[in-house]
Amino acid sequence: MVTPLNSFYRDALFRLALLWLSRAFDNVWPLSCHSRANFMEKLEKRMKTFMSRAALAGLLMGVSVLASAATPAPKGAEVFIVSPADGATVAQTFTVNFGVKEIALAPAGDVTKNTGHHHLLIDVDKLPAAGAPIPNDANHMHFGKAQTHAEIKLAPGKHTLQLELGDSGHMPFDPPIVSKKITVTVK
């Protein structure tokens, strides 16, 4: 099972690869060479060093891409909105209760297998992209402390609500674990 590394480690691998590449040409210029043959010998040595480091950097960058692979969804895992009910009329400030089946809740950053945490999608037409963290904005509320409910405030009118479980790094599972989308009318 491929477990995604958080973005800190992925970025660190990428930076390490670039740093290692750049070190191959440190102190090359000006070359302190007394002859053309000496110059070519030193240049050839530096190029071999550069090429071997480039190959290793490519490998490290490849690993950083694999690190962003999605966490497989536990078999039978479900998420759902307990309340309010679909079609309910609610006050501007109301409580949304979350539920799960066949998966445990854990805070963001906890890499325990078969765990995740809630993200409430408000008026979102398209699910967040696979392979990228779930956004954190007014339409994508994060509950990274493994909360099971939230008090939210919405403007009057019709709104859609949907839950999506994210893994330890706020990434959608593969396949995504999402609730049925409900509609509420805020008075």
Write the element-wise H/E pattern from the N-terminal end onward: HHEEEEEEEEE
Detail the poorly predicted runs. none
How many discrete structural domains?
Answer: 2
CATH superfamily of the largest domain: Immunoglobulins
The first-level CATH class of the largest domain is given as Mainly Beta
Question: Helix coverage percent of residues?
Answer: 25-40%
Number of strands: 9
Shape: elongated
Model description:
- This protein is α+β, with helices and mostly antiparallel strands and 187 residues long.
- The protein folds into two domains: 7-66; 78-186, Immunoglobulins (Immunoglobulin-like), CATH 2.60.40.10.
- It is built from two helices and nine strands.
- It has helices at residues 7-23, 36-66; strands at residues 78-83, 89-90, 93-101, 104-105, 115-122, 140-143, 149-153, 157-166, 182-186.
- Strands 2, 4, 5, 6, 8 and 9 form a six-stranded mixed beta sheet that branches. The protein has a three-stranded antiparallel beta sheet with strand order 1-3-7, with no helix packed on it.
- The longest helix has 31 residues, at 36-66.
Structure at a glance:
The chain has helices at residues 7-23, 36-66; strands at 78-83, 89-90, 93-101, 104-105, 115-122, 140-143, 149-153, 157-166, 182-186. With 187 residues, the chain is α+β, with helices and mostly antiparallel strands. The chain has 2 domains: 7-66; 78-186, Immunoglobulin-like (Sandwich), CATH 2.60.40.
Top keywords for this entry?
single chain, 187 residues, alpha+beta, Immunoglobulin-like, 6-stranded mixed β-sheet, 2 helices, 27% strand, elongated
